[in-house]
Amino acid sequence: MFKKTVFGRLLYLFPVIFTVHNMEEVVSDLPGWSERAGLFHPIVGTFEFIFAVIVITILGYLFTYLAVKRGKGSIPAYLLFSLILVVDINVFFPHLLATIATKSLAPGTVSAVLLNLPICTYLLIRGVKEEYIQLKRLLIILIPFLIASIVTIAGLFFIGKTMEGLI
Hints:
mainly alpha, 78% helix, globular
């Protein structure tokens, strides 16, 4: 049964801000910016980037739904909070670091600072306080999740580029 707790409903803030952030990156032409971003982002084409953004955004909604449905301590809860933590870290690297280093606003920085940082941090703190997740367990999962995320994004870029070549 779907668990309709206050915190469960609050978790749905995450996919909303995740969508806004990802759309900001699309609208601010992250693919164009990637051509001059150096180490901060691999060069990525528009189609492959938008394809990856759509899939990753859908995963954010799926992780949230499953985490709320399965509840405290579930595998989906740890997947969701791993993604929330990665999005929180992403505010600093690459967004703020790239903005400072390139002396230009990196795509996604506005929503990263104004939405992702406060809301993701709040959800993480509240998730630990409400024992939705255990911080120690989350931190253990973080490195494998980061690696899986990087591999997934690279794979989605590859699939998107391949699909574009077929169109």
